[in-house]
Amino acid sequence: MSSKMIVLMSSDGQSFEVEEAVAIQSQTIAHMVEDDCVADGIPLANVESKILVKVIEYCKKYHVDEANPISEEDLNKWDEKFMDLEQSTIFELILAANYLNIKSLFDLTCQTVADMIKGKTPEEIRSTFNIENDFTPEEEEAVRKENQWAFE
Amino acid sequence: MDRVSNLPDGVRGHILSFLPAKHIALTSVLSKSWLNLWKLIPILDIDDSEFLHPEEGKAERLEIRQSFVDFVDRVLALQDDSPIDRFSLKCITEDEDMLPQEMFVSKTLVKLKIRNDRCVDWWCGKGGTSLPMLKSLYIDSDLILWGKMKRFLSSFPVLEELRMASMEWKESHETVSSASLRKLSILGTGCEDYVNPKSISFDTPSLLYLNYSDLVAEDYPLVNMGKLLEARINLIVKDDQIKRVREPNNDLLQDDAGNVVLQFGNVVKLMNGIQNIQILYLTADTLEVLSLCCESMPVFNNLKTLGIKSEEGRGWQAVPALLRNCPHLEYLIIEGLLHNVTDKCGDACDCISREDKGRSLASCPVKKVEIQGFRGTMREINMIGHFLRSFKCLKEMGIFPEEEGPTNFENPGAFEYVEKILKLYNEISNCDVYFLVWGYMRRKWTTQ
């Protein structure tokens, strides 16, 4: 049985052919398929090819059926390897998952960043993400005092 | 380059929602653009054990606790701007701490779980409680104070699940009234000073599941739960009441319990109210109380699964009547065979020799019996034999040994002997009898 294919076009002009069943894990794409506006391919203005490749890789892995019978445990292990990426790529993925409305990928990428925050002091968090501290010492002191319980 | 701060607020909020409250609060100091972000998060999971442990003594520091309490207050005050879907608060508080007022007045709160080792004092202030969207409420504490039940429940017009453990009734006549309630779990200790309530009524027409453990009430005037599917009932009998329960008409008994216990027959009203039930679990105390209304026991036409728990200090007087009144019983679970022998457990057990024994069992259609807490005593083995002979439709009997308490298997050779007898029972009866023992238990009992 031949499966229906659709074409996704990245912001930098590259085209990717993907099975429709795999692609509609993105709610955004699913709606477009429903509204029948996919004939000439779907332009994804906010997603560049480097990221779209990763998104498609994720969706293919998560399209579980007889051809791809994979257990939850194996998926979790695969997630870990999949998310072994540079920070900048992770953030791009977050934005793409958000734009394409793929809940599980959005949760996975956000959880990864949350794990990078958990257990660190504010100074360490700033350092990890290059966040500039624009509080004056007095302002910072006031914020710390307000939520004193969290800082002790 | 700082990519994370430039993410849209909703995205950053979603990232933070995977963190426990303490870490979320920490981010407020990262930079100005993070200052108020935590307020956008719709799910809040607050557990103070994170910041109180391992440094003991932290909780006592007033400023810390005050700042934590203020934080919770502020979180709850934000509701109008950004509704909270789910809020979980786990914290150690002193007796003086009251729950924040905003917790009782929220237009959006759907599920609330409160747990406090000592006491939960539900605030009933001027405005009263108003949680119009609340569907689930779980309160676990040694003592829950909330005022009159009727008023309490009327604050939750769409409540579907309620758990109160353990609580004390404020008045001696109380009614649990809710049109929306589907699951109810009440673990009570009667009225103040461990006194039996005078009357408890249930007006809960949508109730599907009931877990009711409390001192026996003197009356159950209204039991409106016709849709109930499953119930676990533990009607607690105080030690000074048990004698009277067994001899209700004995004028020679000199006790204070008299007047109260004589009302316990009203328990039949509770049974009548749940007669459409499919799954029923009764404790040893409940069985004793039911002995006061054996003649008027209703017929449980839909009851397929019956579980009874036995204790050596409590009797099986109500068991024959129960079994007779379950015409469609399929599955019987007996947790503990040993019980207080009276001449009224009648034909259900073999403890006292009688001629007409087994009649309530013979007419019982049960197909599967499960015996738990088996101690390997001769008395129990005789009971098992009695069941195998008497239950005409029995196909399967599973026997599980007692795992924690003392057993007869500690005596050398006892385990092998019992196993042999049970194997014999399996061979000579039409029913499949199996004795399931963990490997470690088998080793423990055979190396003597």
From TrEMBL, chain B:
Annotated Pfam families: F-box (PF00646), FBD (PF08387), LRR_At5g56370 (PF24758)
Highest taxon listed in the record's lineage: Eukaryota
SUPFAM superfamilies: F-box domain, RNI-like
InterPro entries for this protein: F-box-like_dom_sf, F-box_AtFBL13-like, F-box_dom, FBD, FBL60-like, LRR_dom_sf, LRR_FXL15/At3g58940/PEG3-like
SMART domains to which the protein is assigned, alphabetical: FBD (SM00579)
Residue ranges occupied by any FBD domain in the UniProt entry: 359-436
Name under which the protein is recorded: F-box/RNI-like superfamily protein
Biological source species: Arabidopsis thaliana (Mouse-ear cress)
